[in-house]
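Weekly sync, protein design subgroup
Attendees: M.S., D.O., the rotation student, P.L. (late)

Item 1: inverse folding check
M.S. brought a backbone from last month's batch and wanted to see whether the design step gives back something sensible before we order anything. D.O. pointed out we never logged the input encoding, so this time it goes straight into the notes. Structure tokens as presented (305 positions):
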């Protein structure tokens, strides 16, 4: 079975400045996105995520490299008809209603008339907007606009969807709604390519990730392999003990309300802390083992890069 997307050694530069100078943006990107997975493309602002996406979609042309979509050359019709795309800053004709908007987009692809109504209804339901079908887009909240944008990207029922920062500028609830929809897309058998710099969102839903910094992929793979499960330290919040009694067991800082936040690196010292607290009739408010998160990994890599 061919991969959903296969990219080999992609190079892209732009000419910038008054006296044009070549600026290298992508410096040999290679990655493979398997069918049916949610693939996270992660990197800081300006790393080259959107540029990569525009190359894959055939909106701009790389100087070098090869791209295949489901085994077909990426510019072929067979590849293109299987792809849906939600851009970073989608533009909406905001005097249209949700239904008119999706009708408009469905005309742009070769959807049969009979199927059109069924599809519009199905995707409005999938993104949770069936009740806003006759509402004008200018009355939509940001989260609703992002959801109708998703419905637009799905209207021709693509097997592969590219989403560029679909969670940006949404509040936590809006982010959760979009994340849930993305997971539903995977359950329907679709492949999702998700660009983001929001680490927690990627961490929550992606099967595999690639991390791009300054036009280069610095790491890619399954999240479990990128993030070590090793406990780095344990964070204990306690009270009823003087901080000087905790010297030598860990780093402590005073927290709000007379509590102490203690960072214990050596595991065997945790018991010592518990004994001290017990002997002083103090209290343990919480004890949290901290493992490395994608965020730690990312920050470490960006520093190195
Ligand atoms: N048409 C262009 N002409 C010149 N430079 C460009 C052009 N498009 C992008 N760039 C530059 O390429 C670099 C990568 O941009 P890109 O939009 O791919 O980053 P990104 O990873 O998507 O960032 P963000 O997280 O901010 O969306 C940036 O430095 C940007 O200024
Ligand atoms: Mg971008």
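Designed sequence read out in the meeting:
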């Amino acid at each position: 079975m061919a991969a959903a997307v296969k990219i080999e050694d992609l190079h892209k530069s732009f000419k910038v400045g008054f006296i044009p100078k070549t600026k290298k943006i992508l410096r040999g990107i290679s990655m493979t996105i398997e069918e049916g997975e949610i693939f996270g493309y992660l990197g800081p602002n300006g790393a080259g995520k959107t540029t990569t996406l525009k190359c894959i979609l055939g909106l701009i042309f790389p100087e070098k490299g090869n791209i295949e979509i489901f085994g077909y050359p990426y510019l072929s019709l067979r590849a293109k008809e299987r792809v849906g795309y939600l851009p970073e800053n989608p533009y909406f004709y905001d005097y249209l209603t949700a239904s008119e908007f999706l009708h408009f987009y469905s005309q742009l692809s070769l959807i049969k008339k009979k199927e059109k109504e069924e599809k519009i209804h199905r995707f409005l339901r999938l993104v949770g907007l069936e009740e806003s079908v006759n509402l004008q887009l200018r009355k939509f909240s940001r989260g609703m606009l992002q959801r109708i944008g998703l419905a637009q990207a799905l209207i021709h029922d693509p097997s592969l969807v590219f989403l560029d920062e679909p969670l940006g500028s949404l509040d936590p609830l809006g982010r959760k709604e979009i994340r849930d929809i993305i997971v539903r897309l995977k359950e329907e058998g679709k492949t999702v390519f998700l660009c983001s710099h929001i680490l927690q969102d990627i961490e929550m839903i992606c099967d595999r990730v690639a991390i791009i910094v300054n036009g280069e992929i610095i790491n890619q793979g399954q999240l479990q392999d990128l993030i070590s499960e090793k406990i780095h330290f344990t964070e204990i919040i306690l009270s009823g003990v003087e901080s000087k009694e905790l010297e030598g067991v860990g780093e402590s800082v005073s927290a709000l309300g007379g509590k102490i936040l203690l960072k214990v690196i050596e595991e065997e010292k945790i018991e010592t802390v518990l004994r001290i607290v017990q002997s002083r009739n103090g209290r343990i408010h919480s004890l949290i083992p901290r493992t490395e998160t994608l965020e730690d990994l990312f920050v470490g890599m960006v520093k190195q890069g």
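Discussion: The CA atoms of residues 84 and 161 lie 5 Å apart. The longest helix spans residues 172-187.
Action: P.L. to compare against the previous round before Friday.
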